[in-house]
User: What shape does this take?
Amino acid sequence: MGIDFLPDKPIYQQLIDRIMGDIIRGMLKPGEKLLSVRDYAIEAGVNANTMQRVYKELEQMEITETKRGQGSFVTEDVEKIALLRNEMREQLVTSFIQNVEALGFSKDEMVLYLQEWGEEK
Amino acid sequence: MIELNNVSKKYGGQQALEGLTLMLPLGKIIGLVGENGSGKTTLLKLVAGLLTPDSGSATFSGSRITRRVAASVAYMPDADLFYPYFTVGQLFDFYESQFVDFDLIKAKEIAQFVNISLDSKIKNLSKGNRGRVKIAVTLGREADYYLLDEPFSGLDPMVRDDIAKGLIRYTDTERQTVFMSTHELKEVEPLLDEIVVLRGGRVIAHEAVDEIRDTYGKDATSWMVSLFREGS
Assistant: This one.
């Protein structure tokens, strides 16, 4: 039913990541209206309380804003979105490096490999 | 709010519930899980006012639960409940005559949402479509509590999906509570706020789904499995 969720992370966090991902990739444009809480909940196959929490946290992070009586919209602040994109990149690299170090690879080795890997594809 | 305090109940010659204590606040979707024979159906029937405790207390808004609680609590049994010669529309009319809170317009909307024609005769419907009709008449009521006994069991994925979406669409999690027993925890988990685990007629755990994932770093199914391993 709906989205397949990872087992080790709260569902509301996975939904926040998903919407932030859509914003960063431009699937959701600055100023674009989000689905209503209930419609998104139905689409994702989750409880409406969970979805309410997701929308509230996105608003607190100022990634979306709620216009009274109209619903939630992606922020029009493109700098804010650029900043979010950088943060996500930072997170991605941090966890990647942690894994790399845990397995004893060197950073240089991985940089080289990433470049080669990119060319092969 | 529904509150059960130290409730015991013998049912069918067996001790079905034993000193069970549980609070069901309004505004939540709560899953009820546990092995066969752990007391799930007895618990649901007791909350619905169909059974009375042998000892302990069961209250709704502070008053003792009796059969009259049915005015505020919509109970959907596991079994087929229908009058085979009715059409879906006639069944809705019947429900409207029986329950003050039955909203015919809402029920018809739900029927449409889950793709059921009002003109179909119940006896000609497939098992899946009877499952859809059951959820439509149950959610067609504007109850405070919806008690669902295994709403997904034995139904194919399409039907389960329709029922799940119907639940999200047609219940108001700000003021209504859904309390449902299920064996399909993995599939149902995203729908739930809280999980109640029964074992041997007692509540051995009652937790928020997000808390389980936050605290233990695993989904509800793995959490439940480890709970049972530790307990045995």
